[in-house]
C-alpha cells in the first residue's frame, strides 16, 4: 500500500431538506482507502451509505469536511472541475441499477469506448481495450453489438463494471453492485471483484449485506444512522465486533452467523439499539 491514500475523507457532514427541517444524513464521517485496498461500507437502508459515496464523487455537496482523491482536494470542486476529474478516469462510480449509467440508445461497444474517446484515445485502440475489459468481466464480444435493454440484469451489471474499469481508474466506488442480482449472478460479480482486488484496483464496496463483502474487503466500515460507528480490519470486525449494531449485522448474516448466535441474542441486540 502506498504512503498516500487514494481516498481520504475527513469530518464529512451532509444535510438534506430545507433549513427549518433539515435531516442530518451523514455525521462527521472520516475514512481512508489505500492503493489496491478494498473497503466495505456496511449499513442498513437509510444509514448514509449512498450519501457518503455520492459526496465523495461530487453528486452531493457536503456541509462540512474534506474529500481528497489521489492527492487532489476535491471538496470545493464545481461541476466543470468534476467533469474534468471524471474524464481523466481517476474515480469511477458503479450504480446499483446499471441502466442509470448505460445509455439505452448506445450499443455496448459505444458505451465502453465513449470514456476513452473523451480522453483522446483513437477509436481502434479504444475498441481493443473495450473488448479486453468485456472479457475481463466474463462477457462475450458478441454482446458489443447489443443495446443495454437486450441484456440480462447480470450482464448489464458486468457491462457497467467494465465501463468503469476501461478508463483504468485509481478508485472505483460500487454502490450495492450485487443487491439486485440473483444468487448465481451475485457470486459471479463477487468473483470478478476478487480478481480486481488481486490486480491492485482500489475499491469501495457499499452494501447492506455484510456477507457479500466479508470475503472481499480488507477493512470494513459500519454506518449507523449517518455515523461511522466502527472501522477496522474485516476479520477483526466480523470476529470481534465492538458496536452493538455491528454485532446485529454479524449475527444477521446467514453465512457469518455461528450456530450459537440464536434468535434471542439478535432480539436482545435489536432492543439495545432501539430498533
Automatic annotation (TrEMBL):
It holds the Pfam family ABC_tran. Residues 9-250 form the ABC transporter domain. It comes from the Bacteria. The keyword Nucleotide-binding applies. CDD domains: ABC_NikE_OppD_transporters. GO terms for molecular function: ATP binding. Keywords: ATP-binding, Nucleotide-binding, Transport. Belongs to the ABC transporter superfamily. This is ABC transporter ATP-binding protein. It comes from Amycolatopsis pigmentata.
